[in-house]
Write a structure and sequence with these properties.
alpha+beta; two-stranded antiparallel sheet; 53% helix; disordered C terminus
């Protein structure tokens, strides 16, 4: 059996943004791990971002929406940060980083935009297909 080498990625985002995304993902049965891994696979396999870069106004709006959602849920941590650490396949990581470099984006910025886009639209920013794994069978 081939062993998959994992790369740990670390991203620091606003706590309210993370909470808003976690709540929305839970509603559709996904975790942050599958959300980020799916994003990395999408970029690596398709060689482009699934959305255009957000404007400063869009970024600010997404963060304000996240804060409002956190207030409604009594979970507001205004301006606090949360570190997210996730393991991704190293080959996928390398391919995705090449695409992000061509887009002049860091991984942190791309993931932050992914979260902001999800909060703004309420929809998956990329096509996501859930497939069964050996564990599920």
């Amino acid at each position: 059996m081939k062993q998959i080498i994992k790369k740990i990625i670390s991203v620091t985002l606003k706590s309210d943004l993370v909470s808003a995304v976690k709540r929305s993902l839970a509603k559709i049965g996904l975790t942050q791990r599958t959300f980020i891994n799916g994003f990395m696979h999408f970029i690596a396999n398709n060689r482009f971002l699934p959305f255009k870069k957000l404007t400063k106004t869009e970024e600010e709006t997404a963060n304000k929406l996240a804060t409002i959602q956190a207030l409604k849920a009594n979970e507001c941590e205004y301006d606090k940060s949360k570190m997210i650490q996730k393991a991704v396949d190293e080959t996928i990581y390398e391919k995705a980083m090449t695409v992000l470099k061509n887009c002049q984006l860091t991984l942190s910025h791309a993931i932050r935009m992914l979260y902001e886009k999800f909060v703004l639209t309420g929809k998956m920013p990329y096509q996501f297909e859930v497939t069964a794994t050996a564990v599920d069978m």
